[in-house]
Design a protein that fits this description.
Blueprint lengths: L12 H11 L6 H11 L2 H14 L11 H14 L2 E4 L18 E6 L8 E6 L5 H16 L3 E4 L5 H8 L6 E4 L13 H10 L1 E4 L12 H11 L2 E5 L6 H11 L3 E5 L9 H8 L4 E2 L3 H7 L11 H6 L18 E2 L2 E2 L2 H10 L6 E2 H7 L4 H13 L3 E4 L3 E4 L3
Parallel strand pairs: 3-4, 3-7, 4-5, 5-6, 7-8, 8-9
Antiparallel strand pairs: 1-2, 2-6, 10-11, 12-14, 13-14
Protein name: DNA-protecting protein DprA
Family: Belongs to the DprA/Smf family.
InterPro entries: DprA, DprA_WH, DrpA_SLOG, WH-like_DNA-bd_sf
Length: about 400
Amino acid sequence: MTDSANAFPVISTADRIDTLRLSHTMGVGPVNFARLMMQYGSAGAALAALPGRMRKAGRRDAPVIPSVSRMTDELERLEKLGGKMLLRGDADYPLLLSRVPDAPPVLFALGGVRKLSMRSVGVVGARNASAAGIRIAESLAAEMAHAGICVVSGLARGIDSAAHAAALHPGLTVGAIAGGLDHVYPPENASLQQQIAERGCLVTEALLGTAPQARHFPRRNRLIAGISSACLIIEAALDSGTMITADLAQSYNRELLVVPGSPLDPRSRGGNHLLKTGQAALTENIADILQVLPPELPKPEPAPWQRAARHTPPLTGFSEPSTIWGDISEAGWIDPDLVQQSVRSLLSVTPVAVDDVVRRCQFSVSAVLATLAELELGGVVEFVPGGRVALLPN
């Protein structure tokens, strides 16, 4: 069944709860979620097969799958708060974010969700920003909002807060947060966060009650980079979180814009480096920003597994889906143990681009990606925002 207004599938409440359960099962990141949905056709069928898949992948402990009652309670609390759950494939899911390979399967939003799919610019920079940096962030954010461009940022101190506040009057701002919608961080931004919820939109991957921790911020940065058409950097040290957002934006083929700073100021060295190496466009005014933005966004479309379902029956009748191990290469049958050994030798606890693993491994792309997916199910690796993968510490 589809909605005649936008041709998006209408998903039942039970299926939405199963999707929420699958997306929050440890060992099922965005990449594996998409793979499981493509293989089994529904979250319910994937959940039924998951314990066996994880045991086969080498996980010793039983998977911790959230219960139906817990996720039902989550949705009831979200509704009381006035929030909304957005599944990848919903019409209201952020348009540009839905096109990236590691798009989160589920988001939670509070406020005007249509602002998540507007032409937008991510504005990021130093928490300990200079007075000049804050003035520039305020000026450019206000001009963008006046021009109908949504300002996306991470509600951090400094540049983020200045950009949000300047775009509040027309309500064209999106705050991507690391914790649940019911958590405020940093504490001094309580009023600003509330105003964004009322006049703009808040968005997060985290369940209600989740306190932001260091490991959550790369996911928050992925939202900023993925939702936006371009990323504007105002004061960023070389090893800062802002540069992580810039890396993510580049991996999503977003335009990078940098306001240049003094070479004597450490807060400007990251942005200046991007300019010097030709990775970003020098930005001084709103005209520089408008020049790189696309005139319009692509049309929305269902999630990959929803598109596939229109042409291929789901594999709900099988306890195990067919996999690449049945494929034949020029050298004969593929040995999964040999592929896994080769892939693991290229990994460490330091994240590496999946593309680099594929290039350096002598096996097919499908074999390497399937192996990485199985290693995640086995609790050996995790996929990191921006198309990277890392070994989990023992």
